[in-house]
Amino acid sequence: MSVRRVVPNIRSEAAQESREFYGLLGFEEVMNHGWIMTLASASSPAAQVSFMTSDRTAPVTPDMSVEVDDVDAAYAAMRDSGAEIVHPLQDEEWGVRRFFVRDPNGRVVNVLGHR
């Protein structure tokens, strides 16, 4: 299993203001579902940051997202380790398969793969 990207998720009600602020640093909007917006660097597209009002299909807002090449293997590794699964593995309507797990610092990590 390999990591494709890591994205901090910032809980925010100021999407427009964040888009403008981070735009000054070279970020551009690459995804916007209304409740989550992701900005990426034009020169380095894997450099991203997301802003969320709340997670639409999960009970908590994750602190970060980690995209992996095999989300099922990641889920099995976390489950087998005894890590706390906060949100079960599931397919989402926007094209990702994901689950949430709590890290040793209490942070919630959204582990995902694109279908």
UniProtKB/TrEMBL annotation:
Pfam families: Glyoxalase (PF00903). Signal peptide: none annotated. InterPro entries: Glyas_Bleomycin-R_OHBP_Dase, Glyas_Fos-R_dOase_dom, VOC_core. SUPFAM superfamilies: Glyoxalase/Bleomycin resistance protein/Dihydroxybiphenyl dioxygenase. Residues 2-114 form the VOC domain. This is VOC family protein.
